[in-house]
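Bumping with the actual sequence this time:
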Amino acid sequence: MEKIETLKNWIQTSNNIVIFTGAGMSVPSGIPDFRSSNGIYSEEYKENFRPEEIISHSFFERNPKLFFDFYFSKMVYSDAKPNLAHDFFAQLQQTKNVTIVTQNIDGLDKIAGSKNVYEIHGTIWENYCTKCHKFYSLNELKKDGIPRCSCGGIIKPNVVLYEENLNSETINSALSAIMNADMLIVIGTSLVVYPAASFIEYYNGNKLVIINKTKTPGDKIANLVINDDIINVIKSLNK
């Protein structure tokens, strides 16, 4: 409980907080992570393709049918609801300057009510035609076959695939928030995927908190490490 008390005190005494989240943040909402024993990357898919290969830009262009089969069956959880942690940080925004920087594409932070959110890998809720660039909502996409625009072009999810660059404007804004934060809380990420894993190196303060079920490479520079499920942590903070 000493670590929880420290975390609670730091949150109470900080005014400019950045929450940097990975897949572990959304696991309690029923969305699988990527690298655990039960994660998306732990299995092979049709025709023995690896998930990392399927969600690459070149595979999307080469085999869009199989890409969308995988995408809609493994990566889109449109019925998922924000969990206790999403709600906690959305509510914290009512009294403090809280910025969410997330690697997740599920949009749950915004659904929970958070306003200052940088989705560095994009979101399933936005899609665009690769030919005419018309935007489509997720609900407008046909969930079987290859989604196509009225112009005939393939509609691509506005998510960052392997081999694609991150949005520079989003990244610059996220890094600026981290550099100016007096507290950085890292939640549910293995900190092994670059460039996102390097983001914590931009933090200049002395309240770097890492909350993750397992150890991460960032633990050695963290000021506080809590190896636990984020829901357990939030419940303890609310006591």
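The tokens above came from a reply further down the thread. Strands lie at 16-21, 97-102, 117-119, 122-129, 135-137, 155-159, 183-187, 208-211, 224-226.
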